[in-house]
Predict the 3D structure of the following.
Amino acid sequence: MGCKNVMVYVETAESKPVNVGLEMLTAAKEVAEKVTAVVIGAADAAATAIAYGADDAITVDAAEYNTEAYAAIVVELVKKYAPEMLFVGATPNGKDLGARVAAKLKAGCVTDVIGMKEADGKIVLTAPLYGGTIYSDVTVEGTVVAIIRGGAFKKAEEPDTAKEGTITAETVEIADLRAKIVNSVQEISESVNLEEAEIIVAGGRGVGSAENYELVKELASLLGGVVGATRPVIEEGWVSRAHQVGQSGKIVAPKLYIACGISGAAQHISGITGSDYIVAINKDEDAPIFEISNIGIVGNCVDALKIMIEEVKKMQA
Ligand SMILES: Cc1cc2nc3c(=O)[nH]c(=O)nc-3n(C[C@H](O)[C@H](O)[C@H](O)COP(=O)(O)OP(=O)(O)OC[C@H]3O[C@@H](n4cnc5c(N)ncnc54)[C@H](O)[C@@H]3O)c2cc1C
C-alpha cells in the first residue's frame, strides 16, 4: 500500500452521502491500509460510508455547510488523526473546503484528481491541465489534500451492510465565525441533476435549432435520462445554462452519454471522460468526438434522433 491512512470527507446532501463521497472510498481503499470517513452534520451517513468501504468513521455535529466552520472541523480532525492524505470531492462546496483546509494545514493540494496509482511506494495523482488537453502526474509527499472529480472512480456496486466499523462522535469547538448563514432559500429554477444522471442525451450546435433540440429532450425523456448541452447551445438559448456540460459547466459520469452534433472540443470532452459508454453522432467523420466515443455514427444527428426515438418507442410499446 502506498500510504497508511487516508481520511475521506464524505459530503452529504439531505443527510445522504453524495456519489463522489462514496466513490472516493473505493479510491482510498486501493492505496491506503486504513480509510476513515468524516461526516459532518449528518451522523446517519457514517454507517453508509462504512458499508461502502470505510474502515471506520468520525461524525461531527454541525449546522449546514459553512466554509469557515467546516474547514475548522476538518483541520482539527486532520491534526488529531494525522492521515497522510485527505480526500475531498470536487463539488462546489468540496472545492471551497479542500483548498481552505490545505492552506490552513500548509499542506499540498492537488485539484481535479481523476486518477491515482502507486509508484516506488509513493502515491501518484493524475489531474488534467489546460482544459483536459494534457494530464499531469503529481507524486505525493507529506500531508496532501486531494480534491477528487466526481465519476473518476466507481463507488462499490452494492453496500456491504454487514460490514463493521467504529463510528466515533467528535466535538470540535468553533471560534466566532466571521460569516454566518442566516437563511438559505431554494433557487426556483429548473433542477438538473446532470452529475448523478445515469443516462445523458446531449446536443451541440450541430443539432441546428431550438426546434430540433426538442428531439434531444424527447429521447432523454424516453430513456429516463437528463438533457446535456454544449456551450454554443446555451448561448443560442435552446436550453438553460443548468444543462451545460464541460469545463465551465458540469462534470458528468453517466453510464451512457449520447452526443448529438457535438464536435468534441477539449472544453466539452474534459467534462465527459468519466462516462462509461459514449455514443457520438456527427456528420463529419473526422470530428474529434469520435476519438473518445465507443460507438460513432457518421450522419445527420436530426435523422438519427428521429430513428432512435421511433425505435425506443417501439421497444417500450
Ligand atoms: C474557457 C472556455 C470554457 C469553455 N467551456 C465549455 C464547456 O463547459 N462546455 C462546452 O461544451 N464548451 C465549452 N467551451 C466552448 C468549446 O471550446 C467549444 O466551442 C464547444 O464545446 C463547441 O460546441 P459544439 O460541439 O456544440 O459546436 P461546434 O464545435 O460548432 O461543433 C458542431 C458539430 O456538429 C457537427 N454537425 C453539424 N451539423 C450536423 C448534423 N446535422 N448532424 C450531425 N452533426 C452535425 C459538426 O460537424 C461539428 O462537429 C469553452 C470555451 C472556452 C474558451
Notes: The pocket of flavin-adenine dinucleotide is lined by residues 204-206, 208, 230-233, 244-249, 261-263, 265, 267-268, 271, 281-284, 287, 300-302 (CB under 6 Å). The chain has two domains: 3-170, 199-316. The CA atoms of residues 41 and 64 lie 7 Å apart.
